Amino acid sequence: MATSESEFNPDLLLAHKLPETQYTYNERDVAIYALGIGACGEDAVDSDELKFVYHRDGQDYIQVLPTFASLFTLGSMTRLNFPGFKFDPSLLLHGQQYIEICRPLPSKASLINKVSLAGLQDKGKAAILEIETKSYEQGSGELLCTNRTTVFLRGAGGFSNSSQPFSYKNYPSNQGLAVKIPQRQPLTVCEERTQPSQALLYRLSGDYNPLHSDPEFAKLAGFPRPILHGLCTLGFAIKAIIKCVCKGDPAAVKTISGRFLTIVFPGETLITEMWLEDLRVIYQTKVKERNKTVLSGYVDIRGLSSSL
Ligand SMILES: CCCCCCC/C=C/C(=O)SCCNC(=O)CCNC(=O)[C@H](O)C(C)(C)COP(=O)(O)OP(=O)(O)OC[C@H]1O[C@@H](n2cnc3c(N)ncnc32)[C@H](O)[C@@H]1OP(=O)(O)O
């Protein structure tokens, strides 16, 4: 148990206001992110992926992958601190990510993030903490996207003061649910190998958690070597869905939900299976070398090309 009963104070915790953060990005950040999630990693002239890392003079702007939105949360997620609730940050794992895109992401922008606590559950052996980030364009004040980041805090559960485990959630119960994988054959499957240096490249987008780069830190956290960022795995999976289901159009993606089921090591091969249910793509991603399902979730899309 990471907190003694006297340390957990739900009134203090729920009254706590998280500070606003800012995030400014440009085309260079967009391209570095796309390389970090494997764009053009196997073929430098891949016509489906080149547009995410390069645009010729005279062409329209570089295109932005919808999972780039997950980076907007970095400012608040790297400094998590709550009065009335303590945990060991070295035991934190990314559990789930939910992203709602209100309109396609511009290739450069300055954003204001409004951050709030969206949930906290006592699961006994762990605590589940959820942080919501709403990103508004500076100037217009228009809402661009919402992220909900769920972190799984190993060893931080068992803090409830009553016999009923503490549970707080302030968002609709149908959002970001664990998915049921269909029993039928998938509509389509995409296989892509991550590079042994994938996490070292991905971290340059701003997630410098040593869990993904430092062998000693990874061992202290309970892993034999550094593991891949969950959001990097999610980026690979959603890029595969855009390629295989959305005909390469990143603007087709409306909502993304993913649950990280087990760890991925950089260098492993990701196989993403996809099923279509109306305008929802259900997906699961497996690591080929260990035959383990590492991620599952859904993507809601805005429409479908008739050729599918
Ligand atoms: C830009 C900011 C990013 C913020 C994150 C910063 C740090 C980033 C770190 C990473 O990227 S870590 C790498 C990515 N994440 C992972 O690799 C985690 C992979 N998943 C696991 O290893 C396991 O699933 C787990 C999280 C350790 C949980 O497994 P465990 O066997 O311990 O749990 P269960 O007994 O099955 O379930 C207990 C309880 O918790 C609920 N639950 C389980 N898994 C998750 C999950 N991934 N997300 C949310 N909730 C989860 C589960 O439903 C059970 O609840 P009840 O059903 O009992 O109510």
From TrEMBL:
Coiled coil: none annotated. InterPro entries: HotDog_dom_sf, MaoC-like_dom, MFE-2_N. Residues 23-155 form the Peroxisomal multifunctional enzyme type 2-like N-terminal domain. It holds the Pfam family MaoC_dehydratas. Residues 182-294 form the MaoC-like domain. CDD domains: HDE_HSD. This is Enoyl-CoA hydratase 2, peroxisomal-like.
